[in-house]
Amino acid sequence: xxxxxxxxxxxxxxxxxxxxxxxxxxxxxxxxxxxxxxxxxxxxxxxxxxxxxxxxxxxxxxxxxxxxxxxxxxxxxxxxxxxxxxxxxxxxxxxxxxxxxxxxxxxxxxxxxxxxxxxxxxxxxxxxxxxxxxxxxxxxxxxxxxxxxxxxxxxxxxxxxxxxxxxxxxxxxxxxxxxxxx
Length: 182
Description:
The protein contains 10 helices and no strands. It has helices at 2-9, 13-20, 24-27, 31-44, 54-77, 83-99, 102-117, 121-131, 144-162, 166-180. The protein is elongated, with a radius of gyration of 23 Å.
């Protein structure tokens, strides 16, 4: 009961972590270090790219995630016989879930698992290696429109590099405009 009261009144640890997410040193790797890692990866035949960190998802998920984790923690330590308190916590969790972006919360837990626990590692490896199904965090997914737009930028770069492609660039302009209207 004492721990439950403490958590209920002093659940500032997660909020403190959220404040830390604003610290650029935690979220950003210096460009020169990233370039070095990319070069090493290229030499080894490995593609290296920068992605969001667990701190990014924690900060993005914000107060609603903090509340959800607080209620879940309290629920897990509340006496099973205390039906009224547990029902109240379930109601609070449902309210917090209404405010949480599901992609952010799943990204947060997937990153946490990858970084600390590895509970999903074996199922992910089996799915990827035997069935060709890659499971990633929602933050690493790209919506169809964003995917097309990013690839069209690559096409534009290549056409500019090739030179004498005015006709193709005009077609690309029309295509980009029509996709932008979707």
